[in-house]
Design a protein that fits this description.
Number of strands: 4
Helix content: 25-40%
Distance between the termini: 9 Å
CATH topology: Alpha-Beta Plaits
Largest sheet: 4 strands, antiparallel
Shape: elongated
Order of helices and strands: EHEEHEH
Number of domains: 1
Structural class: alpha+beta
CATH architecture: 2-Layer Sandwich
CATH class: Alpha Beta
Strand order of the largest sheet: 2-3-1-4
């Protein structure tokens, strides 16, 4: 019913742009940005290390496909990290607010 989505971005500027668009377009109720994280990952056969920004999106599960599509349109990465996890429990007040603000259908 609810989801949290992890997205990395090249920097805080890009992270804020993506987060703001998702919230303005009512795809997400809330976005948190951690401005500096170190990412170590495989890319094209070698290990890379970069400083990135990290976005945590809270939304309703039915909006996840639209968020994936929109992030791919906005993002500069060839293969952006977009990982959705189900929220199975939480504060009922918060989850109610989340559903209202993300424009959930049910």
């Amino acid at each position: 019913m609810y989801a949290v989505i992890y997205i990395t971005a090249k920097d805080a500027v890009q992270a804020k742009e993506i987060a703001r668009r998702l919230v303005e377009e009512r795809l997400a109720a809330c976005a948190n940005i951690i401005e500096k994280v170190t990412s170590i990952y495989w890319w094209r056969g070698k290990i890379e290390e970069d400083e990135e920004a990290f976005i945590i999106i809270k939304t309703v599960k039915e909006k996840v496909p639209a968020i994936v599509k929109r992030v791919k349109e906005l993002h500069t990465y060839e293969v952006p990290e977009i990982i959705a996890l189900d929220i199975t429990e939480g504060s009922e007040d918060y989850l109610h607010w989340l559903r209202e603000e993300a424009g959930g259908d049910t």
